[in-house]
Design brief:
By secondary structure, the chain is an alpha/beta fold. The chain has 10 helices and 8 strands. The protein has one domain: Alpha/Beta hydrolase fold, catalytic domain (Rossmann fold). The protein has an 8-stranded mixed β-sheet, sandwiched between helices. Strand 3, helix 1 and strand 4 form a beta-alpha-beta unit.
Length: about 280
């Protein structure tokens, strides 16, 4: 198992677990909440078969990475990503982020530049700014996020069950594009995450990425399901083409928030088409 040290807590190393497979142009896949790097299973297979080097890792607090009590903010998440890229000394990287992972991609390009990165992909993105405010009237009200945090505090396992129902739109896709086994696998992965991290990450969803988005100056692909119940299309991806010059938007009809598994063929085709340009 491979790890990179990204800090310390009480004299103990904080380590990120990562996997690095294949050869060719490196593609770094950054997972969404509340899963881990293995959630890219169907994309990793397609990328490896197409001749790319695929790097996945578990965000701090999730998967096989360390579960510290702090560092659950996008500046720290992005510093963790930078530590991994420097550890592997990769260049000409394509950064691909799903959901929360799209925040790392956006902030990395804004803060660390493009010396190592040549392209960006935002899938089910959280940018530009999710919270409803006076200058962001199309956002989501604060009380929605307060309710999520209350549900996590009261009964995290029960919260995960309801969360995944909307994560995949199970009332529409369960039994066709999605199996009970995949749903159970996701729940098991999420239940093993740090309870503190699961709660703390909710506040990170309210990060204002508008200035970060304006600094993206590399080819960028945006992929989003038009039936997303977690990060509504109108509040997120629909706004990004006007904010990221030259970006491409691919909308997946009937796609839920997590389109990586139930709409893997559509996602993989859009991703490979973009990488080959």
């Amino acid at each position: 198992m491979s790890y990179v040290t990204v800090g310390q807590e009480n004299g103990q190393n904080i380590e990120l677990y990562f996997e690095d497979h294949g050869s060719g142009q490196p593609v770094v896949l950054i997972h969404g909440f509340p899963l881990n790097g293995h959630s890219w299973e169907r994309q990793e297979a397609a990328l490896l078969d197409s001749g790319y080097r695929v790097i996945t890792y578990d965000r701090r607090g999730f998967g096989a990475s360390s579960k510290p009590s702090s560092g659950y903010d996008y500046d720290t998440f992005t510093a963790d990503l930078d530590a991994l890229l420097r550890h592997l000394d990769v260049r000409d990287v394509v950064l691909v982020g799903f959901s929360m992972g799209s925040g790392e991609v956006t902030r990395y390009v804004a803060q660390y530049g493009t010396e190592r990165v040549s392209k960006a992909v935002l899938i089910g993105p959280i940018p530009p700014f999710l919270l409803k405010t006076a200058d962001n009237p199309d956002g989501v009200p604060q009380e929605v996020f307060d309710g999520i945090k209350d549900a996590i505090r009261q009964d995290r396992p029960k919260f995960l069950t309801s969360f995944f129902e909307n994560f995949y739109n199970t009332d529409v896709h369960l039994g066709t594009r999605l199996s009970e086994e995949v749903l159970r696998m996701n729940w098991n992965v999420a239940a093993r995450a740090s309870g503190r991290a699961t709660l703390a990450c909710v506040d990170t969803w309210l990060t204002d990425f508008r200035e970060d988005v304006a600094r993206i100056n590399i080819p960028t692909l945006i992929i989003h399901g038009d039936a997303d119940r977690i990060l509504p299309f109108d509040a997120t991806a629909k706004r990004l083409p006007d904010l990221i010059a030259g970006s491409e938007l691919v909308v997946i009809p009937e796609g839920p928030h997590n389109i990586l598994w139930p709409f893997a063929e559509e996602v993989n085709q859009a991703l490979l088409n973009f990488l080959r340009k």
